[in-house]
């Protein structure tokens, strides 16, 4: 059913039934809020760092034809790289926790697979008896991360090819030959792979604000659409190679090309785009977070129990804010498919 919602008195909005597809811009807004509420209780009172792992163009090209295998490899290897380097006593000597988010697009919806990673600035000691804090504005050496990441990805690609788990089509059909595939990988062993580390976040609240923008993002949101007609679509893009006013511009694509680019970023069925590693691993996450809070002398954030005091007469509240005033949206009516919504509520009902 669809829902009729009331914000401030006199304002009524229609919220259409969710399709719940993870590539839908409307449905992901609500899903992000629910996911963030669960992550808020796991937020630690420490600095957080933002890391980005990318793939060279040659690997990204074959990833388009082997999404499941290479996306899994990208997420697993990027996490293993951070965990291994952090565990080395020469660097941090601790067990870290990681939240990884897979993105596959650039601003113009081109194919650009990369991983955004949020990592607390420190970790548990080997025996789990103390919290080891990283340096104030430094987590791990990007140069060291890059080299290990490069080696592990190339080893993983060679293994996937050797076991016949990669497919090649069109211009890349020749890479099915092991000699040709090795020749394609050879130059990648001698170039620097991009691993980017941003400055630490300005507190835990900034981490949540970041996650709300990135975890459930899709290739393009409705807000970026400028106009469209029967033949083309125009949308906003950001050129990261340009600074200043010229960085934000628009691009116009033919309908078929726009759809092709969007569909490039539809993930295989069952592919997990958000993953947790280290002490954030799903199996022991709650126990690890509780232990770390104990070591840091911190209490978990208070969460309001919305279930207390509720009864059948309590108004049903939607997670999304009112677009008019930013307040709570109260569900005042529902209507089934093919049923037209009734007139707006009376003033007395709206006030209630």
From TrEMBL:
Residues 10-55 form the Transposase zinc-binding domain. Pfam families: Y2_Tnp (PF04986), Zn_Tnp_IS91 (PF14319). One of its GO terms (molecular function) is DNA binding. GO terms for biological process: DNA transposition. Residues 97-281 form the Transposase IS801/IS1294 domain. InterPro entries: transpos_IS91, Transposase_32, Zn_Tnp. PANTHER family: ISSOD25 TRANSPOSASE TNPA_ISSOD25, TRANSPOSASE. This is Transposase-like zinc-binding protein.
């Amino acid at each position: 059913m669809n829902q009729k919602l009331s914000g401030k008195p006199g304002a009524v909005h229609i919220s259409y039934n969710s399709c719940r597809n993870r590539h839908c811009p409307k449905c992901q807004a609500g899903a992000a809020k629910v996911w963030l509420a669960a992550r808020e209780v796991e937020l630690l009172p420490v600095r957080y760092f933002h890391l980005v792992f990318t793939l060279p163009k040659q690997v990204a090209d074959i990833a388009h034809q082997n999404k499941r295998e290479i996306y899994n490899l990208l997420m697993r290897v990027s996490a293993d790289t951070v965990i291994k380097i952090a565990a080395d006593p020469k660097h941090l000597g601790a067990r870290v926790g990681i939240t990884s988010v897979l993105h596959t697009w650039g601003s113009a919806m081109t194919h650009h697979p990369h991983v955004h990673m949020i990592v607390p600035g420190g970790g548990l000691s080997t025996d789990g008896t103390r919290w080891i804090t990283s340096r104030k504005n430094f987590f791990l050496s990007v140069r060291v991360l890059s080299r290990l990441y490069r080696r592990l990805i190339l080893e993983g690609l060679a293994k996937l090819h050797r076991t016949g788990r990669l497919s090649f089509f069109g211009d890349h059909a020749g890479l099915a030959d092991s000699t040709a595939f090795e020749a394609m990988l050879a130059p990648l062993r001698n170039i620097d792979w991009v691993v980017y580390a941003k400055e630490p976040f300005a507190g835990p609240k900034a981490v949540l604000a970041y996650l709300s923008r990135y975890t459930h993002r899709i290739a393009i949101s409705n807000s970026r659409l400028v106009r469209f007609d029967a033949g083309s679509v125009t949308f906003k893009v950001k050129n990261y190679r340009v600074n200043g006013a010229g960085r934000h511009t628009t691009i116009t694509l033919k309908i078929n090309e726009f759809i092709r680019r969007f569909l490039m970023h539809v993930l295989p069925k069952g592919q997990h785009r958000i993953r947790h590693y280290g002490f954030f691993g799903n199996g022991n996450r709650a126990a690890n977070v509780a232990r770390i809070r104990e070591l840091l002398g911190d209490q978990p954030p208070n969460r309001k129990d919305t279930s207390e005091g509720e009864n059948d007469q309590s108004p049903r509240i939607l997670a999304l804010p009112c677009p008019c005033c930013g307040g709570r949206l109260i569900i005042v009516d529902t209507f089934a498919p093919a049923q037209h919504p009734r007139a707006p509520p009376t003033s007395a009902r709206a006030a209630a």
